[in-house]
Amino acid sequence: MTRERVVIVGAGFGGLAAARGLARAPVDVTLIDRCNHHLFQPLLYQVATAGLSPAEIAAPIRSILRDQKNARVVLGNVAGIDRDARQVRLEDATVVPYDRLVVATGARHSYFGRDDWARFAPGIKTIDDATAVRRKVLLALEHAETETDPARRQAFLTFVVIGAGPTGVEMAGAIAELARRSVSRDFRSITPHCSRVYLVEAAERVLGAFPEQLSQKARAAIEQLGVTVLTGNPVEAIAEDHIRVAGREIPTHAVIWAAGVQASPAARWLDAEADRSGRILVRRDLGVPGTSRIYAIGDTAALADEHGRCLPGVAPVAKQQGKHVARQIIERRSIPFRYRDWGNLATIGRHRAVIDMGRLRLSGALAWLLWCTAHIFFLVGFRNRLSVGACWLWNYLTFHRGARLITGGPTPTNQGE
Amino acid sequence: MTRERVVIVGAGFGGLAAARGLARAPVDVTLIDRCNHHLFQPLLYQVATAGLSPAEIAAPIRSILRDQKNARVVLGNVAGIDRDARQVRLEDATVVPYDRLVVATGARHSYFGRDDWARFAPGIKTIDDATAVRRKVLLALEHAETETDPARRQAFLTFVVIGAGPTGVEMAGAIAELARRSVSRDFRSITPHCSRVYLVEAAERVLGAFPEQLSQKARAAIEQLGVTVLTGNPVEAIAEDHIRVAGREIPTHAVIWAAGVQASPAARWLDAEADRSGRILVRRDLGVPGTSRIYAIGDTAALADEHGRCLPGVAPVAKQQGKHVARQIIERRSIPFRYRDWGNLATIGRHRAVIDMGRLRLSGALAWLLWCTAHIFFLVGFRNRLSVGACWLWNYLTFHRGARLITGGPTPTNQGE
Fold first, then answer.
1. What average pLDDT does the segment B182-192 reach?
2. Which of A61, A373, B131, B175 has a Cα-to-Cα distance from B91 of 20 to 30 A?
3. Residue B30 belongs to what H/E stretch?
4. Domains contained in chain A, CATH given
5. Of the ranges B126-135, B266-275, B348-357, which one carries the lowest mean pLDDT score?
6. What is the ipTM, given to two decimal places?
7. How far is residue A281's CA from residue B319's CA, in Å, rounded to a whole number?
8. What is d(CA B136, CA B128) in angstroms, rounded to the nearest whole number?
9. CB B412 to CB A138 under 8 A?
10. Helix, strand or coil, per DSSP, at residue B263
11. Which protein family is named in the record (chains A, B) (predicted)?
């Protein structure tokens, strides 16, 4: 009997959990990703704000699966999936045949039909995204230092984060700290109180997925860091040198997008039904309707919980789904997925966080400590944990952001921003 | 009396030493660089071979000079120097007036007139260079893993370093370790003994600046790491998929250039006489002939020692020259520069190095320990020292290279290499 070939596309939290869940199964696992590294996305905003180095939150997929002998890793971009022939086609024309397929290709930013905004308001989903945002933020500070016109200097010192979910809140808090505290002694012309950070949200409150009480605490905490929160106001326009919100024009050269996501084109590859965000409407066992061979998990899948609410696009959902699919493949039967919700966390700046664990709701310093511990614990790879822990301690004690490198792109003075 | 304005162009070892040397002087220092960070270039090959992260060998210039109140830092590209008006012109049209000018703009690679080779054989002088080389090397391994044709696979597993100075020797040793040891357990199709590393040198021996005896030891050590050393053979051709040397064609997709350097265009800016490598022929006091206001130091300057040998392009020369220029500016007199040679170091792989300190010549493990200590000691910034020390220890103990990220550039499978 030949071994079943399980192909997993995407080495995020979901895909990796599926691969690991099959470690002892008599199957051949092929994990395909277009990056060579698994990325710990919840900490990506720290790379974008120069607190951590890329290598500290990313580990080569090969190293993670080094000792799993039934798994091989393929670096490649999916061009399409042939359901009849049971093959994944890669862009370099490689063909990977499967008996079971797990699609875990995640999501990208969505600009709600305004793709022209992408140029001025980059999001952060990949390492390259994060270093580009870091470059943008640090260059704005450099330009502010040499700019002599007060209005133009103020524009360089104005930072706007669009979207007040956990990423947006964390990002705004981190930028406020970077611009106000960490760099204050390094510049001669600009002073900490010159900078302005805006957090713009279309909905009525920040952290909409959290209980209202924690939302309010989070808002108070970021406002205390000096962030101006504009809720109930969808952004109206984004250009190279300003945004418009609530009928008001805010001059800025550094806008960061943390508002919407759009699933990867997996639904198109599979010709499957999708929701508005492009997520595949999966069965309760995470199977793609019309086949028993293909599963979709994580940000690629849309599934409602027992209360009819769509499961959020967070790491725990993807991980549990990956594990669940592995179990079904091993047991060769269909089992409905149930999400075990351990709670929600978001951090705000140096020593504040909010945690929602159902009955247990925390905010403030204790929540922040819990947040740190949880993130370091979940980081893949022992070396990264150690290193991130050391960096945080160092940043915390010194207010110093060590990874403040402007890299990539053309030479700085040729930049438009 | 107005304070003298000292403008320093370039924040490498020389420029930074000059700025720091003026810390207590009653002058206004402006340090101009096109990067926001000072780079510890001697360890750049470790970034290129995934041993260290960029932020571990680079520190923001602003942070380094944070407490030096008479210094300001300007991020900018020099467009030209107007000697009559005593002004440095930047590309963004900013004009920086000077009373004294120190030119410390370093060097770039030189392809000896074959600039078409640059595309296929990148050198490593900047962080972006190093991450590009890292990308090239890691992608070659990825392609080898999926390639089924044996000859083409071998080409992906063949790495060529051109130039056997310290950088070339260190690079070849590090690639041999990366390809043979660090990644061996991570891949399924390729095995450690498949890979080939060539070190190509036009001169008769490796490490030409070292005594012959140490050269021989270094050669033996890198050969023991599995590197094939081809001395006395200038490279004849470099193309996308091969190089030609000694009439023989070697198929490869990863060529790294460590052969020649060319000074920055400072001589042209100043309309000063230069040697073949573009270095300004300075006076014994490091002044540019025809003026008492301008100095050139480090890789930008050509100066012979008392034996008539041109001073090498290494960090200690640049540092001592920077300090020397600062002293002359403070004392307002011309003092001939004398290089104090503390010795030469080069490392080969995990626990070998050669050290030449005149009468004291070391090789092997003790030399390697000395090399590590010296490099960690000279790293700018305490945090970096700690972090690099920890990384090295970790890499040493585990054979693991933690910074193996493929970043930047288009999606991997669209790549030609």
1. 80
2. B131
3. strand B27-33
4. 4-34+76-106+264-331 (3.50.50.60), 110-260+343-406 (3.50.50.100)
5. B348-357
6. 0.79
7. 64
8. 12
9. no
10. strand
11. Belongs to the NADH dehydrogenase family.
